[in-house]
Amino acid sequence: MIARAPRNLSALLVLGIPLLWIVVFMLLPYGIIVTYSFWLKSYPTFKPAFQFGNYLTLLTDVQYLQVLGRTLKISILVSILSLGLAYPFAWWLVFRCRSQALRTWAYMAVIAPLWVSYLLRAYIWKTILGTEGILNSFLMSTGLISEPSSLFLYNQFAMVVTLTYIFIPFMVMPIYTALERIPLNLAEASADLGMGPVQTFLKVTLPLSTPGIAAGFTLTFCLSFGDFIAPFLVGGPDGNLIASVIQTQFGAALNWPLGSALSIVMLIIVLAIVSLSDRLEATAHTGAA
Amino acid sequence: MAAIIELQRISKHYSKTIIGVDDVSLDVEDGEFVTLLGPSGCGKSTLLRMIGGFEAPTHGMIRLAGQDVTHVPPYRRDVNMVFQDYALFPHMTVGENIAYGLKIQGRSRAQARDMAVDALALVGLPDKIDQKPAQLSGGQRQRVALARAIVRRPKVLLLDEPLSALDARLRDQMRIEMKHLHEKVGITFIMVTHDQEEALTMSDRVVVMEKGRVAQDGRPQDLYDQPASPYVANFIGTTNFVAGSLTGRSPAGTRIASAAGDFTATADLALPQGAEVTLGFRPEKVRLLAEGETAANVVPGRIAEVIYYGLGLRTTVELAGGTQVHVDCLLPDSLARSAVPQPGAPVRLGIEPHNVFVFAGRVAA
């Protein structure tokens, strides 16, 4: 027993610190938020209570449902656009790119923006899409338009483009990994058994890469769902997303209980998506294991 | 019988200096079981992949049942392959794997399933149709891969090192089963292996490859008894080599002198007198002569080592001139064991002339 004690102590130290971290910085804040969500607003502060008024407001006030709907729409569009761009790219990298050096460089080119400040990456699109921006100058120089258009910036289109640009690495990485794990000879076996390239893709490559698609979709969806910088920078008047509303509730509106309730609703949606994709991955895995 | 596969001067050059297959011509008869045998890197797998359509030759022509298929993609070739690690689709059941190539042939779902059931019965796995490949053992996966490839009744079945992933006992069993399967289905089999025993036991014909070329092509017994080169003699079975020179011809055969003594060989090479040659003989075709016994070729030596391996003895004998050769003999009963030679003892080796190979030139043995 005496010999055991130090080992228990070191185990406690090793596990204790991360545990403490999780409790103090995750569980405790969640607990506080959940508690707040039942409180009452009493301007300029709030008072403890246990009532569902905040949640009821969210469900009945069209304004919040609209924002929620818009956020879902933007996140889904971002995920679909990212998938549409990332999948062919990852597929090309894994199956068609012959040069190892080119593959490494192309992959790094996608990942590298992650090292650049998030704010800067969002800001770039302001300079591209703005009235004085690169896109307008280009279109004017080609003569397609005669004067700068303000159609590109401060709308949902700008948000989708910006968020796709920012989060696409999170779609490329899991899909690349999933595709890379597919043995090359499976495609050969499929061809051997009479299937052309398109059928081989649909029957072998695509089903075997679904775990990667699910993971990428979940990541980009959840990240866009909680984003509040892009709406702030490129969103414009009709670009309010749920995260910016939460920010307002905790800031200018000074309605922490409502903000908390909104955060909890958002958390539930994200958790639902994550567990759904987990299940999808699990079914794909029992097949692929 | 018609040739189902004709390879006409096939080459595969990866670059100017890297040559995978070098000018190979080969005909395979319909229904034959042909094995491409050689060490890794000899081009045998590349050749097989070219027949399957997975790689295109840089020169030459491949004909399948008389049709030029050199540049026909695999999915339009009436050839199927059993891949080295089976390449079963992990997301499909055994039945779906086997039926995979049938729907494209215009078979209905029910028909495809019936054919999959039959194919599974043929390979001895009738009850696994609804399992996933991950639930099967290595041997079972191999059978599924076989079933998937033969169910389409291709003109030719290609097998890429089909037994290399199995353990020794299962491998022995599958050898026999695959040979029986070949007889049952009557499809032409072309197999690639580096295992000479596998090649000898399973095939009608063995093509020994060396550095992208065909070193020798023949029936297993011919390859073993009349190897065309020291390479073949050493790759198939074991051969003792003794350097010598041709001294003349007699009615009994070719006379060869060596540091170990004089030999007579039945084999005759069109070489001038005095030409450098290499003699070869199999360890099991040499006898340790008892006192008073004699043979057409008698070579004196001294025993260097005796190794007992259950079935018999492998004796290493040092000949005059320093060459060491192996002699294998079976131990028929306990009596023979008392006559086990002892290291250091002088012996005489007896070799019959028809068991002596003669190769032109010298090899580093």
From TrEMBL, chain A:
Stretches assigned to the ABC transmembrane type-1 domain: 68-277
The record's InterPro entries line, in alphabetical order, gives:
MetI-like, MetI-like_sf
Q: Which Gene3D superfamilies match?
A: MetI-like
Q: Show the stretches that span the lipid bilayer.
A: 12-39, 74-93, 105-124, 157-179, 213-234, 254-276
- Give the location in the cell: Cell membrane
**UniProt-listed Pfam families:** BPD_transp_1
Q: Does the keyword Transmembrane helix apply?
A: yes
GO terms for cellular component? plasma membrane
> Does Magnesium show up as a keyword for this record?
no
* Gene Ontology biological process terms from the UniProt entry: transmembrane transport
Q: Where is the signal peptide?
A: none
Topological type in the membrane = Multi-pass membrane protein
Name the UniProt key words of this record, in alphabetical order: Cell membrane, Membrane, Transmembrane, Transmembrane helix, Transport
Q: Which family does it belong to?
A: Belongs to the binding-protein-dependent transport system permease family. CysTW subfamily.
Recorded protein name is: Spermidine/putrescine transport system permease protein
From TrEMBL, chain B:
Can you cite an annotated GO cellular component? ATP-binding cassette (ABC) transporter complex
Which PANTHER family does this chain map to?
SPERMIDINE/PUTRESCINE IMPORT ATP-BINDING PROTEIN POTA, SPERMIDINE_PUTRESCINE IMPORT ATP-BINDING PROTEIN POTA
Q: What would be an example GO MF term here?
A: ATP hydrolysis activity
Which residues belong to any copy of the ABC transporter domain? 5-236
Query: Which Gene3D superfamilies does this entry report, sorted A to Z?
Result: 2.40.50.100, P-loop containing nucleotide triphosphate hydrolases
Q: Which reaction does it catalyse?
A: ATP + H2O + polyamine-[polyamine-binding protein]Side 1 = ADP + phosphate + polyamineSide 2 + [polyamine-binding protein]Side 1
Q: What is this protein called?
A: Spermidine/putrescine import ATP-binding protein PotA
Whether Disulfide bond counts among this entry's keywords is no
Function as written in the Swiss-Prot or TrEMBL entry: Part of the ABC transporter complex PotABCD involved in spermidine/putrescine import. Responsible for energy coupling to the transport system.
Q: Which UniProt keywords apply?
A: ATP-binding, Cell membrane, Membrane, Nucleotide-binding, Translocase, Transport
Tell me which EC number(s) this protein carries. Answer: 7.6.2.11
